[in-house]
Amino acid sequence: MSIPFLPSDQANGAALCRRAAAVIPGAIPGHQSPALNVPGHFPYFAKRGSGACYWDADDRRFIDFMGGYGPLVLGTAHPEVDAAYTDALKNGNCFNHPTEWTVRLAEALVERVDFADWAFFGKNGADMTYWAIRVAREHTHRPYILKVTGAYHGTEPWCSDTLAGVLSEDKAHILEIPWNDHAALEQTIQAKGDRIAGLVTTPFHHPSYGDMELPEADFLAALRRHCDAVGAVWILDDVRGGFRHDIGGSHRYFSFTPDISCYSKAIANGYALSAAVGREALRPAASRVFATGSFWNNPAPHAAALKTMEVLERDTCIPGMLQRGSEWIDAFLALGKKHGIELKASGTPTLPYIRIAEDPGFFKQQSFCSAAIRQGVFLHPHHNWFIGAAHDDALLEESLAAIDRALGGCSV
């Protein structure tokens, strides 16, 4: 089978890709596909990791600013989290019933999230966002869900950004407005308000293939006001940002309060888990919406999540991440000025994205990120990056030296 863009400098990675192509549709499917980075330049397979670094199948080391696309808030192979996971695993991995770990984690989330009265668990972010819109519909007995144009909430048909295997009926009751667009919000509420079950947003707008946008001063307040006026449920998709801005949820960082919050990614530092928390008024609807999985209440990921939250709080990780991230962004932008390259930063200190400013087709950005890969730094060309607790001062300084070399050697 002929495979385009096999990496010439990754003998093991190329060999694995050929093997994968024979038995896996697309060889490396989904968001990990090389087609979504720069084919032929970026790593194709990982081998091992430690902290904020990992090694590919050809033993090349990279300082990692993706963290598994967000989960590794404490870094790869964190000893305390891994020990909590393996200790819980000693008593069994899968049962006919939940264990005490499920109850303990629900209690911990309700204690930390200021508006939460209950918690519900799954495995992926898409599990929770889809379940949450069903809860909103059950609570209100209304069909429509309002979302932000270009926002990513998972791969379920209702929000899929591709049309493969998706029917028009799947999106028939989904309404969209641009982020920070007060006029579109007003118009949509006036037209459909009495039939809108819920509003789904992220805490700030973080699309792929575009700059992130923070909320304007009164946009979040307007969302809350309109939800209350028409009785709609505000669902916060905090899957990407959760536990990276505030231990109690990103809504506290941005000073607003939703009705349901959905978490995954960083909740268990890489172990498969997702959660939703919500208000008391939604408890009856949440209890009626049936969603389940054979592995959703496995105890070990819940134990890992409890340990992750404990470490984040004990070591005041999140304030440190925010501070170091802010300083790193400033230093990164200064390197652009040094090389006469205009850079644009967006997002937050723990979910930053920096790109070549004048680059509508992302070709310059791809060239720069490919140069960074050659210098041992993994920066995704189109997706936001992540700063975690394992990005200490020494590692960030090392990354900036490599980025300095990459900016001096790329074709921009």
Describe the structure.
Helix 5 packs parallel to helix 6 (219-230). Helices cover 37% and strands 15% of the residues. It has 2 domains: 11-77 and 316-409, Aspartate Aminotransferase, domain 1; 79-314, Aspartate Aminotransferase, domain 2 (3-Layer(aba) Sandwich), CATH 3.40.640. The protein contains 12 helices and 13 strands. Strand 1 (46-50) and strand 2 form a beta hairpin. By secondary structure, the chain is of the alpha/beta class. The chain has helices spanning 11-23, 79-89, 100-112, 125-140, 182-192, 219-230, 250-254, 283-288, 299-314, 317-338, 363-374, 393-409; strands spanning 46-50, 53-56, 61-64, 118-122, 144-148, 174-177, 196-201, 233-237, 260-263, 274-278, 343-348, 351-356, 377-378. The protein has a 7-stranded mixed β-sheet with strand order 4-10-9-8-7-5-6, sandwiched between helices. Strands 1-2-3-13 form a 4-stranded mixed β-sheet. The radius of gyration is 22 Å and the shape is globular.
Summarize the structure.
This protein has 412 residues and is an alpha/beta fold. The protein has helices at 11-23, 79-89, 100-112, 125-140, 182-192, 219-230, 250-254, 283-288, 299-314, 317-338, 363-374, 393-409; strands at residues 46-50, 53-56, 61-64, 118-122, 144-148, 174-177, 196-201, 233-237, 260-263, 274-278, 343-348, 351-356, 377-378. It has a seven-stranded mixed β-sheet, with helices on both faces.
